[in-house]
Write the structure tokens for this entry.
Amino acid sequence: MTRSLPTAPNLEHLRKQAKDLLKSHRKGNPECCEELRLLKQFREHSNDEILTSHLTLHETQLAVALDYGFPCWADLKKFVLGRNSDMSYLHIHCGDSSAESLRNSSVPGEVIVWREIYIEGQTPGNVPEDEFCRVRAEFLSSSMNLDFNGILQGMRDRYKAVREADKYDEVILWFDSCMFDQTILIHVISLCTDLDTKLSLICIDRGLGEIYPKEYPELFGNRHEISRDEIKLAERAWNAFTSDNPNEIFKIVAGDCSALPFLKDALVRHLEQLPSVFNGLNRTQNQILNVVSDGAEKLVDVFVKVSNMEPRPFMGDTSMWKCIDELASCEVPLLKLDGPGKLSDFINPDPELYDSPALKDINRWRVSITSAGQKTLAGKLDNIKLNGINRCLGGVCLNSSEPPWRWDTQRNEMIR
């Protein structure tokens, strides 16, 4: 069946049709099934099979577009708005340097940067947006010496930009394969699922910060529209990431992650940030102690060597300096720092904003491993028993002398 558009079609009316179709499906109304059979995945399905299947707004929009004789919702929308050319684009990046390269390229559109670090601090699940932003802003402001109100306003602006993204013909997400990017990606996809505009993805196994402006047009041309399977996996993964039970993440990892091919490795790497059963240190802490034990003294050398131990480096230098400072300033120090003062007092909270190094006077610092550090590295001491723990990873908070969750590196599994 193919309907004809009215003489003066209204986009809001078409949007309502798609939403009504989705509501009808969720209520189990069999009258919606005829139109839904225009979708490829339902073409040969019975009414019961269709009504018990997962369905998204993007899919009902496609069904409405097909019903009116258009191959996709974007083409229907463009026709109704009279947009035969000059497509409008919104690009979402997670790094300032890569976003600036995109702005300096020939790729058209507006660019916003998703300035967040979900791999650090608590990301609580099942809370309202305002509460989530408040928790994140409190963590970022306290851990990075940044202004709370400024961070909170930035978050609100980003969420508002996503809610209003329907005014663009297409929203394009630009991410790479590292843990830092992948955790932001699943959240942003989850936020965009109710948009009634085309949602596309560019995800590469290379740091976007390494891409030159002249390379962006080719990447832009190779983007793909985000699929139903990608949306479903992103939503489930974000719910697991924000759960207070890390077993939820392990379930995702154990399942089919092929829709987002870099997600599985990223989530496993996230779980490796739990304290190990061997010595109470997470993988990054163990790598830092190993590098220093092998003779690295300069902070820059430690950063480079630890980064090189990662198949997909994800940690920025500011986060590395913070981790080193924590290992040197805990009750039983595992590292010793020699320099002009307490390391955390010299960390620049926003090196890109101030166009200066993340750590002032970096060459004046030297780091070495303590006797306790050597014994912990060898598994003779346990860092949790020595120094306790107060850290959140996603939705999991570890704040006792004996945390309920540890990671077994040898068996690649969690121990409770």
About this structure: DSSP finds 19 helices and twelve strands in the chain. The longest strand covers residues 170-176.
